[in-house]
């Protein structure tokens, strides 16, 4: 049940906080273009993946992610609640408990991504000033705290203000990437690209294994493709959400493929694998000298800063919109000022603060955190795809074409679960078990039964998996 009593337009969106297609596209691009594109050359090469496997892997990823983007566009037009986002899709397709878990998993993924960004920001500064180290020193933790609460202050000014800043930052951070693309086209050497096209000289193994390894990296690179759906309630027009999702996907895919393939034609795979992240800096430095590395490093800081803002926006809106829809405690949906879910913002910031201190003592690496963040998004992607496939199969619009791309999206989501591996799936169950507590709190607040029918079996399965994960962590049998 919504607690929002402000005047609404005929589409159900509250007045004064509506976003256009440009702002929504900025959210999508800002969410996806973070650190991944700056480290993609080394990550793919270290997979390992030879240039030929890159071509195959990007083709598979392009098809799968395009199907996922089209699925979100379809849901934005045809779902029973086009303004409900991932929570609304799961609720209408599978009921209240799975819906709350989907929103919860999405929120966990978002703030884990923010944690990775904070660590990476100060790790990058550590390349120039040793005091910041790998991004987890006390100085870095204190710096991260200042950044974290500074962004919280920006968000407390209003979602529209922060969205406008995100559009500006998104444009600014693309400049170093465009410089690399221009230089890369001129420096690209076909002989370097084809010297060991399929990795046979290095004995990298079957192409299938190489493709599977690189796809684990692309999961993180494309997180945020659903970003515009979170702000569906604030969109000026229903169609803007779908257009922003597809436009953002097309732009990011083009940039990722171009950067990866051009780098593979400038340095050989072993040379790329030995680079320090942000590896794009090393590639550009090999062509133009030291200034290229500095440019990319500055671009990375701007990019990660913008992505951090985008994901903070998503975190707050995930909690607030879910609470207003009755999926989380109602206090998280309250807005003392229009467009400012204060408690959702403060809760996210507080959780991130604790996680930041934990990262200092744990020495958590950027790569480990992003894999966990990606793992938490796989279930929301699968549930959304299944709901879309059911709608399309029942004649919900789009005809046979909709059945095809929602079917491909579902298969691709299952493939990502397989690629992620059992360890991360078990760790995800620990977070989802905490989500069950949030669900129980909400249902009791509403005076409704906590679980219904098959939800009991699902909850039991999550608790068992979480227990398995806990035992594995304590005994050392589970490594993540």
Topology:
Layout: H1 21-32, H2 36-45, H3 51-78, H4 85-94, H5 96-125, H6 138-157, H7 159-187, H8 190-194, H9 207-222, H10 227-230, H11 238-264, H12 269-273, H13 279-288, H14 290-324, H15 342-362, H16 366-393, H17 399-420, H18 422-445, H19 455-475
Transmembrane segments: 21-40, 52-75, 104-129, 135-156, 168-193, 213-232, 244-268, 288-319, 340-359, 365-389, 401-418, 424-442, 454-474
Keywords: Amino-acid transport, Cell membrane, Membrane, Transmembrane, Transmembrane helix, Transport
Subcellular location: Cell membrane
State the helical fraction: over 70%
What is the mean pLDDT? 83
Shape: globular
CATH superfamily placement: Amino acid/polyamine transporter I
Structurally, the number of domains stands at: 1
Label the CATH architecture: Up-down Bundle
Briefly note the CATH topology name.
Answer: Amino acid/polyamine transporter I
Radius of gyration: 22 Å
The largest sheet, given as strand count, sense and whether it forms a barrel, is: none
Measured between the Cα atoms of the first and last residue, the distance is 38 Å
What does this structure look like?
With 480 residues, the chain is an all-alpha fold. It has a single domain, classed as Amino acid/polyamine transporter I (Up-down Bundle). It is 74% helix and 0% strand. The protein is built from 19 helices and no strands. The protein has helices at 21-32, 36-45, 51-78, 85-94, 96-125, 138-157, 159-187, 190-194, 207-222, 227-230, 238-264, 269-273, 279-288, 290-324, 342-362, 366-393, 399-420, 422-445, 455-475. Residues 1-16 have low confidence and may be disordered. It is found in: Cell membrane. This is Basic amino acid/polyamine antiporter. It is a multi-pass membrane protein. Keywords: Amino-acid transport, Cell membrane, Membrane, Transmembrane, Transmembrane helix, Transport. The chain crosses the membrane at residues 21-40, 52-75, 104-129, 135-156, 168-193, 213-232, 244-268, 288-319, 340-359, 365-389, 401-418, 424-442, 454-474.
